[in-house]
Design goal:
Blueprint: H1 2-15, E1 20-21, E2 37-41, E3 50-55, E4 66-72, H2 77-92, E5 101-103, E6 114-120, H3 126-130, E7 131-134, E8 137-148, H4 149-158, H5 160-170
Parallel strand pairs: 4-8
Antiparallel strand pairs: 1-2, 2-3, 3-4, 5-6, 6-8, 7-8
Helix pairs in contact: 4-5
Length: about 180
């Protein structure tokens, strides 16, 4: 219970608002840790986007514990579903880490061309969000950025940092589900 409390308190401190639960019962949710959930943070102040975050995707026994978050221009059950599916993949198939990509198997939202997620540093919130020492463990909090197939292929050919540099040069609009690919 302390693990979950520490994660929720960390998010609360960084994002400055109370989280709300995102009930979800479809799919193989029973294969995730009992204390796993997705929580959301409503837009407030200068933060005009919805923020969705995993809670207890990581467990205290994990070698490299991580949690993920995504942003959305509006309230969205689609984002909740993607975080649940990504957490399931992480727990049951292959451990995710910084620079990894995951195939969502469907668009991020609506008809978006972004059908993949890229595990990235939390650039909007920095190291304050990224790092939490709890239970004598270093827990990492990463941003799951929706990306296109061509961007994932670019990353495979040129590297994770090259893709992030391309995002910077292109003025990447991370909140636009209908954005064009930068690669």
């Amino acid at each position: 219970m302390a693990w979950r409390t520490n994660i929720v308190n960390h998010y609360r401190t960084v994002w400055g608002t109370e989280p709300e639960p995102c009930p979800f019962s479809a799919g193989p949710i029973s294969q995730l840790p009992l204390d796993f959930s997705v929580i959301k943070f409503v837009p407030h102040g200068r933060r005009r986007m919805w923020t969705y975050a995993t809670c207890c995707m990581s467990q205290p026994v994990d070698h490299r514990p991580i949690e993920l978050h995504m942003f959305s221009p509006w309230e969205s059950d689609e984002v909740v579903q993607l975080l649940v599916a990504t957490a399931h993949y992480h727990r049951t198939a292959a451990k995710l880490d910084l620079g990894h990509s995951v195939n969502f198997g469907r668009p991020w939202m609506g008809t978006s061309k972004s059908e993949y997620g890229l595990v990235s540093l939390p650039y909007l919130d920095g190291p304050f969000l990224e790092n939490l020492k709890t239970n004598s463990r270093q827990l990492k909090f990463y941003w799951l950025i929706p990306v296109t197939h061509s961007e994932v292929e670019f990353k495979k050919q040129n590297g994770f940092e090259a893709l992030e540099e391309l995002f910077d040069r292109a003025g990447f609009d991370y909140l636009n589900p209908e954005r064009s690919a930068v690669a």
